[in-house]
Amino acid sequence: MNRTLVWFRRDLRISDHEPLFRAARRGVVIPVFVFDRALLQHPETGSARVAFMLACLAALDADLRAKGGRLILRSGDPVQVLPDLIRETEAEGIYAYTDCERIYGRVRDARLNEALSAQGMKIRWFEPPASLDELIPYPRYRSRWWRDMAAPLVPTPPQVEVPPDLPSDPLPSLAALEHLADGKPIPPGGTTAARQLLADFLSHKSDRYYWQLSYPSAEATTGLSPHIKFGAISVRECVQTIQQTPDEGDFRIRRSQQQLIARLRWGNGFTQRFRYLPQLELRSLYTVFDEDGWTFDEDLYQAWQQGQTGFPIVDAAARCLQATGGWQALNFRTRAIYASFLSNLLGMDWRFGALHFMRHLIDGDCPIDHYQWAMQSGVTHCLDKTWTRIYNPGQVAVDRCDPDGAFIKHWVPELAHLDSAQLGSPPPMKTYPTPILDYKQARQKRVEQLEKQRGRFLQCGNVVPYLADLPTDLTPFGSDRFAGEIDWAQSPTERLFPAALDLTALDDRQAIALRTWFVAHVNITPPKVRKRPPPSPVNQLALNL
Ligand SMILES: Cc1cc2nc3c(=O)[nH]c(=O)nc-3n(C[C@H](O)[C@H](O)[C@H](O)COP(=O)(O)OP(=O)(O)OC[C@H]3O[C@@H](n4cnc5c(N)ncnc54)[C@H](O)[C@@H]3O)c2cc1C
C-alpha cells in the first residue's frame, strides 16, 4: 500500500487540509510534526506561543486518533529527521503545504529539497489557499482570494491509517523545549476550540463587531488569531462559516461580517507580500527609512516595554501584552497606538518593537506583525501622507478606544481612582510616572523626518532601486539581545523555498504589478533585466489518484 508522510507545520488541523486528504486517499499516512530547535530558539519565539502550539498539537493528535490515526512527533533538524523517517517507514515521499512566514523556514525548505533530491526522495508541495507563486497586481490577488475562499472545503479524511508499530516521541513539556512559562493564560488550542470561538462570535458579537472592535474592554473580536496563526482552523473555513450565517436582514450583522472577512483577507495579503519579499522580515520596504533617523535609548525602550511611559493607554497596552500575550485583550487599535508610540514618538527602529511583540504575542505571526509595525511606523509608503499613523496617546486615544477607562484602570490600577476624562493626562502622583515625552514636539520631529525621507522620492520616476533587497546576511533582528540557533542564517540568499522575488530581474509587467502591493504613488520602471540561473529542480511526488 502507498505510504506518504504528511509534514505538519503551521497547519495543525485535519479538515480543509489538502496534503492530509490526498495522502489518506493514497493509502497509509505518517502524520509528523518535528520540533525544530532553530525555530524554538529563534530570537522572536515567545514561550506562551510555544505553549499554545503544544495545546494545538495535543488537539491535532486527538483529532487524528478519532480517525484511527495519531500524530508522530520527532525532534531535530527536519532536513535530517524527514529523510530518516522516509527510510524508516518506507514511504514514497512527503506532502506538505508551502510556508512563507519566516526566512528561516524558507532556508530550511530549500535545504530539505536539496537533501531529498540528493537521496532520490520526493516531496510534493501544496499551495495553501490564497497563496500564489506568481506576481500579480493586488486587485487580481483580491479576486483570486475570493475565488479560493469560495472553493469547497477539502473534505476531512474519513480514516487516517498510521503504521501501528511506528514510534513517536511523547508530547514534550514546555520546559523540555527550554522555555519557561511566564504566567500568561493559554487559550484552549485546536480546531474544536477555534470553531467554538467562531460560533460564539457569530451568536453574540456579530451585531457589534464593526462598531466596537477598537474598544478593548468590549471584547468584540473573535479571539481567533492564535488559531489562525497555527492553522488550527483554515481561513477558508472561517470565511465560509461567516458567509453561511444568516444576517437576519440586520445591516449591523452584515457590516460586521464584511469587516471580519476583510480582516481575514488582510492577514493573507501580508503573508503574500512576504512571499514576494521575505526581506520585510528583516528591514523596511524602502532602504531610506532604515538608513537614517532611528534613535535608540535602552531606558526609554524599557519604560515602553514595562508600561512606565506616563501615558496611560500606552502603559495599559504594555502591561496587557506582557500579562496576556495579547489574546483577545489587545486589539488592533490598541496595538497600533502602542506601536506608533515607540517608532514615531520615541523615534526607535520599529524592529525593536516587532521583536518585543513577537516574544510576547500568543498570536505572533511574522508577516502580520512586522508589516503592521512597519505600516504604523510610516515606512511602507514612500509618498502617501495618509499612511503616516502618529496616534495621539493622550485623551484623544482614551476617548477613541477606552471612553469609560475600563481597560486602562484594569491594567494601570494606580489610576483606578481617576475620572476617565483625566486618563489622557493624569495629575502628578507619586505612584505613576510623569510623561517621558512631549507629544507635540515628538510628533513634529517625526513628521519632519518622514517628509525629508519621502522627499527623496518626489523627483524619481522609479522606486525599484530604493526597495530593500534581501540582505546576504539573514541573521534575525534581535540575535544580539537573545541568543538563538542561527547558523542557518549564513545560507546563500538564492537558496530560499519558495524563492523570493528578484528585484533586479523584474520586467515591465511585474514592476507595475509590484507597485500595486505597496501603494507607491510614482511610476515604477524596471531596471535592466539580469537573468539568474533557474533554481534546482524539486522532485515532485506523483499524485497517483
Ligand atoms: C503592531 C501590530 C502588530 C500586530 N501583530 C499581529 C500578529 O502578530 N498576529 C496577528 O494575528 N495579528 C496581529 N495584528 C493585527 C490585529 O491586531 C490582530 O489580528 C487582532 O487583534 C487579533 O485578534 P482577533 O483574532 O480577536 O481579531 P479579529 O478582529 O476577530 O480578526 C480575525 C482575524 O483577522 C485577521 N486580522 C484582524 N485584524 C487584522 C489586521 N489589522 N491585519 C491583519 N490581519 C488582521 C487576524 O488573522 C485575526 O485573527 C497586529 C496589529 C498591529 C497594529
From TrEMBL:
Needed co-factor(s): FAD
Gene Ontology molecular function terms on file: deoxyribodipyrimidine photo-lyase activity; DNA binding; FAD binding
Domain Photolyase/cryptochrome alpha/beta: 2-131
Cofactor: binding comment: Binds 1 FAD per subunit.
Keywords: FAD, Flavoprotein, Lyase
Residues holding FAD: 209, 221-225, 363-365
PROSITE patterns given in the database record: PHR_CRY_ALPHA_BETA (PS51645)
UniProt KW Lyase keyword: yes
Gene Ontology BP annotations: response to light stimulus
Top-rank lineage group of the source organism: Bacteria
Residues annotated as site: Electron transfer via tryptophanyl radical: 294, 350, 373
Pfam families: DNA_photolyase, FAD_binding_7
PANTHER family: CRYPTOCHROME, CRYPTOCHROME CIRCADIAN CLOCK 5 ISOFORM X1
Protein name (database record): Deoxyribodipyrimidine photo-lyase
Species this protein is from: Leptolyngbya iicbica LK
